[in-house]
Write the structure tokens for this entry.
Amino acid sequence: MRSAASRFVKPVHFDGPEGRLEGLWDDPGRGLAPAVICHPHPAHGGSMHSKVVHTVFRVLHEAGHATLRFNFRGVGASEGSYSGWDGEVGDVAAAAAYARRETGITPLWMVGFSFGSWVGSKWALGDPNIERMILLGVPVDRNVDDRSFDHLTRLPAPILIIQGERDQYGSPAGVQRLVERLQPLGPVESRIVPGADHFFTGHLGPLEAALRQGLGLEAT
């Protein structure tokens, strides 16, 4: 059975750096800053249909934000091929431009899960109108392709980090080190979901609760 939120979603396509990208667009019409949601690693089965991505979408939809989930180049029906991280930063830029065109709203929320947290935060550094960042499953300990978050030399916006207690790629200790490095630069908050792994397997409910609490939303 489709959720109430899913009934408002429409498939869309928009131009990216290497061809058309596919996405799922939703706008409750509340006039809030739209959110671009970036999925996990394309080379490891990541797509906009990730359960974590869908959970974030549902929370933001219920809060009244327009959302764009999209497939990076080479995933699903999106044209192009996986670049090895850096090219996908341009895909985020294309997604942000689409969300702004559709809503006419310049401030934007950037949301990224795993690979998407790195790519999205990398893009956000070059945009002066980021209102909020949500990073989930940040791979701070053992990142594929040996990427780190050293690019965050400043904060584009307040950051909320949601991490599983048993995340294979980012331990609570690793997240705490990142938070301590970033806090002098601006507002950063982290929440750890007890018992959850990198994909929040079996813990989507607690993930949703952590998101709501971190964003100051009442549980429904």
The chain has five helices and eight strands. The chain has a mean pLDDT of 94.
